[in-house]
Design brief:
It is an enzyme of class 3 (hydrolase). The chain is mainly α. Helices cover 43% and strands 5% of the residues. It has a three-stranded antiparallel sheet. A two-stranded antiparallel ribbon has the order 1-2. Strands 3-4 form a two-stranded antiparallel ribbon. β8 and β9 form a beta hairpin.
Length: 617
């Protein structure tokens, strides 16, 4: 019989046991030696030795994976350290003051734009808003209209003073408002980027609110307009107190301010219609106000067509803002009314060849291509060329629109230095008024039109235009505008900035009553302010953003308060400056707004031309 040896070997057990005790003892010793000669596993050793101290395991069982204990410790330690580091960084970020991300510094055109708009704040008449931001200005001329018994317009408070005096001329003021509105319609994104969109819209509304007071804006038919408030004629040695003879702050005016009415003033009425119509597009989101402006524009334009005449005939405006004709205003006003209303009758009028002929569209002349408060033909041609570029209305407008487009191209060619239509000073300033004084107001208008037309071509995917057989890139037009505006901002032989407050060297003796008299709670009478007019000291108040009349044809400039041909700013001049600056400012890739100007224009389906006459043998 065989049994199992618990020590790992077989045991033979004999049934008949005849061995002696000594033999058994000897045999057991042999068995012990045999058993002990074999290695025992841990289980077997535990049977012999009992419970022992266990060794630490080198691995950690995580359930789904078994990892080295050393690696496990390093991993947990790294996680804890990372958490502590992240918490420390978070604490630093929260405790350290945050700095906002700064955009790139604004370019010179943007900086100058912000200042140029401030000039209009300094020119405001009436009860000023709380945040006008011109510390030396206050409420003024609150009796305008009431003090003149001869007029039916009793509330003519508000609007803008024209220049360095306190006269309110509707003709140049309306042109200034039209230019500002045009620039907002085309470049609202750039105004917004400069942070000036609300400011320029407030500037426009201050003016249009006033224009609505100067005629019966609620009527469909009118027979008169208040063309001017104040008087400035000092010819013949007149010494009656008025806005030119006296040198006082507007806030201290106590003399009579007469109202000049007109009953046959096509040029003024059509220009006012253009101002209100263009502004109605600016304020199209305010439907009530926009419609009020449109209604006023319609009424004014009807008056301009019904009662013909030049507004400046027979009154003192002839000395200051004489109008040479009204046919250009007919095209200008009709074009703006078409864009504001979509009524094709206005477009038909604006494209009537007979009116264009009377406006001088088909003949040259020394001032052809010069946009100003007097002649808007060039502006109207650019404005209507826009329609041809983007809408292509076709027959029956195509022929005259093509003519306007071609003439606009020729005008743009005349601005380039390689052509001799206009002279230039040695410093590079184009002489659009042929060497006459107060040149800058014409230059800024040309810079605006050049930049605008180049942006029109870019938006139409057209890289340039032809001047005769030669093709020129749109970059050439923009370069022209930049060189002219750079000249005005200080890149000229005198290193003089002609925009007050821009740069370090600018005119200090601006021909401006409010800026030249200190705000010292002293009310000076009509002649009492003459000492400040004639003083050689710099103005005590800086009229920020005012573009002065500018240098002469030799790049010369006299910073003398008494010489308005050098140092007087105007509404019309600053409006052109603002328009040119916003067009050149900011990112060049941000072009015009193609659609807003056409927001009221219905879809155009060109009328087919009439069939040819029947053939006759």
């Amino acid at each position: 019989m065989y049994g199992r040896d618990p020590w790992g070997g077989p045991l033979e057990i004999h049934t008949a046991d005849s061995a002696t005790d000594d033999d058994r003892s000897r045999n057991l010793q042999d068995f012990d030696r045999a058993a002990m000669s074999r290695s025992l596993d841990e289980t077997q050793q535990s049977w012999l030795l009992g419970p022992t101290e266990q060794k630490k395991k080198k691995y950690v069982d995580l359930g789904c994976i078994i990892v080295s204990r050393k690696i496990f410790k390093w991993t947990v330690g790294c996680i804890i350290a990372a958490a502590l580091l992240a918490g420390f960084i978070t604490m630093i970020v929260k405790l350290v003051p945050r700095h906002k991300h700064h955009n790139p510094p604004p370019d010179n055109y943007t900086l100058a734009l912000r200042k140029a708009l401030m000039f209009f704040n300094a020119q405001k008449s009436g009860k000023l808003p709380k945040h006008n931001n011109v510390s030396w200005r206050g409420n003024s001329c609150l009796q305008d209209g009431k003090s003149d018994d001869s007029t039916m317009f009793k509330n003519l408070v508000g609007g803008y003073y024209d220049a360095g005096d306190a006269i309110k001329f509707n003709f140049p003021q309306s042109f200034a408002l039209t230019m500002l509105s045009w620039s907002v319609i085309e470049y609202s994104a750039k105004y917004e980027a400069a942070g000036e969109l609300a400011h320029v819209k407030d500037t426009i509304k201050w003016g249009t609110d006033y224009l609505l007071k100067t005629f019966n804006s609620s009527a469909d038919t009118i027979d008169r307009i208040a063309a001017q408030v104040g008087k400035g004629d000092t010819s013949g040695g007149a010494t009656d107190p008025n806005d030119h003879y006296c040198w006082v702050r507007p806030e201290d005016i106590d003399y009579a301010r007469p109202v000049t009415e007109c009953h046959g003033c096509s040029d003024l009425a059509a220009e006012m219609a253009a101002a209100l119509a263009s502004a109605s597009i600016v304020f199209k989101d305010n439907k009530v106000y926009s419609q009020k402006l449109v209604h006023g524009a319609r009424t004014l334009f009807k008056f301009s067509r019904d009662q013909r005449g030049r507004y400046s005939v027979g009154n003192e405006a002839e000395k200051f803002y004489n109008s040479t004709g009204y046919w250009d205003e007919f095209i200008w006003g009709a074009a703006w009314l078409y864009y504001a209303t979509g009524n094709s009758s206005y477009l038909q009028l604006a494209t009537t060849p007979g009116i264009a002929k009377h406006a001088g569209a088909f003949w040259g002349g020394p001032d052809y291509g010069v946009l100003s408060w007097d002649n808007k033909l060039t502006g109207a041609q650019v404005l209507l060329s826009r329609m041809r570029l983007f809408l292509s209305p076709g027959y029956p407008y195509e022929e005259i629109l093509r003519t306007f487009h071609n003439q606009t191209s020729i005008i743009m060619c005349s601005y380039l230095p390689i052509f001799t239509s206009f002279n230039r000073t040695k410093g590079g300033l184009i002489q659009l008024n042929h060497g006459r004084p107060q040149s800058l107001q014409y230059v800024v208008n040309a810079a605006f039109l050049a930049t605008l037309f180049s942006d029109y071509l870019a938006a139409a995917d057209t890289p340039g235009w032809y001047c005769g057989p030669n093709f020129y890139s749109t970059d050439v037009l923009r370069k022209f505008a930049e060189t002219q505006i750079d000249y005005i901002l200080g890149k000229n032989p005198r290193k003089m900035s002609y925009v007050v407050g821009f740069g370090n060297h600018y005119p200090k003796h601006v021909h401006h009553r409010g800026a030249s008299i200190p705000k010292n709670k002293v009310k000076y009478n009509c002649k009492g302010g003459w000492k400040y007019r004639d003083s050689s000291k710099a103005n005590p108040n800086t009229i920020v953003g005012a573009m002065v009349a500018g240098p002469d044809k030799h790049d010369g400039f006299r910073d003398v308060r008494s010489n308005y041909n050098y140092t007087e700013p105007t509404l019309a001049g600053n409006a052109g400056l603002v328009a040119a600056l916003v067009a050149l400012s900011g990112d060049r890739d941000v072009g015009i707004d193609k659609n807003t100007l056409f927001s009221a224009v219905p879809p155009m389906f060109p009328t087919p031309p009439p069939p040819p006459a029947p053939w006759k043998p």
